Amino acid sequence: MIEYHPFEPIVFEDSKILVLGSFPSFDSFKNSFYYGHKHNQFWRLLADIFNDIVPNNIEEKIIFLKKHKIALWDMVKSCKRESSLDSTLKHIEINDIETFLKENPSIEKIYFTGRKSQELFEKNFSHLNIKRYYLPSPSPAYRKLRYEEKLKIWRKLIKLGYEKSTDEK
Fold this sequence. Notes:
Number of strands: 7
Strand order of the largest sheet: 3-2-6-7
Radius of gyration: 15 Å
Largest sheet: 4 strands, parallel
Structural class: alpha/beta
Oligomer: single chain
Number of helices: 6
Shape: globular
Distance between the termini: 41 Å
């Protein structure tokens, strides 16, 4: 059965960075928002980076994203899958990231929350002139790094999204 992405992208007129995942987990579908698995570290990582409180509900999460100028979306528009793991995604149709970026010119950098989203982007949009970075997955299935190690990497890379540089477009 083909599943369609259930959420609109979250973006604001002053969003500086775009965080791109692959496709929502079953728990995210159930909880009606991005990174909805109770053990996913996404919201905790961002809260720690910005010395903010972890948002608990959808309204708080949207306020948090707006406050920190973060846009949020996924690479996959529709697919077939057996589980929430990216490795099971088949018959993938991708979202039109190029048009999204043209419509949201304040976005200066892209951050991928997994190798699958990065791989799909590079396969389809490598021609785009935008800085991009890989963040270790916040998924509870990704156990290669401890939370503290992920936080260190995320903090360093996310902070780049808020620095001005004359050599970047």
